[in-house]
Amino acid sequence: MSEQLLLVDGIGGPSRALTEANRPAQHRFPAFAGPSGLVVTTDRDREHTVVAGLDLKGRRWRELISRPGLDVSGHLAPASSRLLLRVNRGGRAELELHALDGARQPLPVALPGAGWTGEPTLPAPVWAPSSRWVAVSFSSPTVPGDALRVDARTGAVTTVASSRGAFGAIRLTEPTLQLVPSPAGRPIPCWVYAPASPPSRLAGSAVIVVHGGPESQSVATFNPVIQGLAAAGHTVLVPNVRGSTGYGRSWYSADDGRRRLNAVADLEAIHAWLPQVGVDPSRAALWGASYGGYMVLAGLALQPQLWAAGVDIVGMSSLVSFLRNTSGYRRAAREREYGSLEADLDLLERASPLSRVDRVRAPLFMIHGANDPRVPLSEAEQLAQRLSERHVECHLLVYPDEGHGLARRRNRLDAYPRALEFLARHLGA
Length: 429
Prior knowledge:
Blueprint: E1 6-7, E2 16-17, E3 27-32, E4 37-42, E5 50-55, E6 60-65, E7 71-76, E8 82-89, E9 92-99, E10 107-109, E11 116-117, E12 126-127, E13 133-140, E14 143-151, E15 157-161, E16 176-180, E17 188-193, E18 206-210, H1 224-232, E19 235-239, H2 249-252, H3 260-273, E20 284-289, H4 291-302, E21 309-313, H5 319-325, H6 328-338, H7 345-350, E22 364-369, H8 378-389, E23 394-399, H9 409-427
Parallel strand pairs: 18-19, 18-20, 20-21, 21-22, 22-23
Antiparallel strand pairs: 1-2, 3-4, 4-5, 5-6, 7-8, 8-9, 9-10, 11-13, 12-13, 13-14, 14-15, 16-17, 17-19
Helix pairs in contact: 3-4, 5-6
């Protein structure tokens, strides 16, 4: 992952690059700490993200806060004297308040449970102009989304908006975090949602939900699709395969370019592990959106003997046609991740599900928006046509008023129940 930090003149002057364009590094949440310095979350020259200071005059970096073996991120207060630190402990968030001048020890913030705050699924924390308070969005697998107010002087937390009664008597599932052996030598972190009382015909079935990105992380937060799958009776596994963030630079870069198929190999490792959680490997399906949708299609094409069904939402069926047809503003960034059409065409062809469409035999359910600027509708249409020619069961739902994903409630209420019915039909005992 290569991100560049720029200094932009707000009155129309030229922008200035503060970091190198092609140097692999993340640079997040930059904030001014006085007139000549920034506080930035970065993994520049490091395995894990730290909070660092950058001197704008000499461009010198200085590490401010880190946690060995863990990713952290920092959100600076307007007065520049206080900072809210989030520690990413395996997809669960821990918060601390820090005084950047070292005047006091870090102050822990007692969150209302084991859950998550901030990106990739929630808004970032917001400081009050006085720097006395900081507002935080909090979610957990059983808490859709609460708004918290943190007292920056004491660390005390007040819930100002609660979502805990949103589902009434409906029972939500709390996952366990498991470590799945992988060919990488490092285990694959995987959330496992076991259904409380599965219908007898779905007992022992599994749905593996792969996140998008791929520069993202499945964390301990509420997801209605996952809860719906578990409520239907499936065991749901939500892995952070190679390419996921939150576990250090080596893990999120382990699928870059010519290592793309490493992440697909992780799906095979998860499939082999399914009996450890009481799942019948012959009744396992893949579900994913965007890059997760690509992973669904890659799994069905490259591992046809493993998967009983797939649900693909706005996924790429060919990395070649995707890069040729995606919006121009996306192409350069995606080529840095997947490989370029000019230099890596052989790799892109080899990693494209469409190139192996003759091997697909599992039934497929696809959902796509007609106005998708990122993954054009043609990605789904070309695959559906090829599967239809081979008489492989394939359902394609196209929503004319959607883009990259399903934003409208009425479309979600139409598409997701149909996808669940499709899985129940193919995974039932």
